[in-house]
Amino acid sequence: MDMSQRVRAICSFVQAADADSFAAAGRVLGISSAAVSKNVASLEQALGVRLMNRTTRTLSLTDEGTAFLKQARIALDALDSAVDSVAAQRSETSGHVRISTSAGFGRDQLLPALPGLLTRYPALTVEADFDDRVIDLVGEGYDLTIRGGHIADSALISRPICRMNLVLVASPEYLNREGVPHTTQELRQHKLIVRRFLGRKASPWNFRAADGSITTLDMDAAAVTLSAPEAMAQAASLSLGIAQVGVHHAWRYLACGRLKIVMLGLHDPGSYEMVMQFPHRALIAPRVRATIDYLLAAFAKDEALHVPLSALNAYVFQDRDFAAIHINNSV
Predict the structure, then answer these.
(1) What pTM was computed for the model?
(2) CA-CA distance, 36 to 26, in Å (whole number)?
(3) Architecture of the structural domain at 92-164+272-300
């Protein structure tokens, strides 16, 4: 099998695997279903292994087929990127970029960065999905994703955006009314705002003892349970209780005094991070590379994403905050 036949056969295999049908793959490639079937059979013969099991109605990948599909995608992406790279030398950066991120980060960080991106690259178009579910980046056709939390090792390339520190916050009005907790035992007596992500267990609240050990607070008795992390800060600002939130979600409320931090130093900020991820490719398409580089630079300048723990002492609830509330209430 010469090189051109091999490329045609690999394209036929990838399209058939994606469409689960020789006929559908043929329509995409502009050839007959019989030609697709023949190409896949020739590829299997050249490799000496069966890549697909066929029935009259369905196709299913063998283990060897699943492994080969992963490598074939990388090879085809490299060919596409090579073409894009040559084209980019003759024209401006252009094309369509698909991005997946969470609703909160998309609204507060990604959207404000898009005007600058599209001004710099006017021939670029962006499709952004704000969705908190875990996605299949390659299978669903995204160019890049932005995610936060404990980032598991994967075949994806990860570029760090920021560390995600957690804090406990409440409104000054709530703390004036209910008191300020200083221990986990006192905290249990408060109204707690808890996050439950997509029906899973409530996100834990951890506390660090003087000896470095970690204890976890039981979150079963929450006053309010929410699924969106950005809503936690808003709920706390409305005096619904005490919430555990990322500093970047709470920052605008802290800056204007609508939220105050409690138990700083006792509460464990966690070891979470925000990253940008994209598929491993021999050559990244210029449209994707330009988007990645611009967004990373924009996020590096976002104050809310880079507040050091040492700066948070200025936002801890103090006795003077009680006095300020009493003065405001008496006016």
Answers:
(1) 0.67
(2) 6
(3) 3-Layer(aba) Sandwich (3.40)
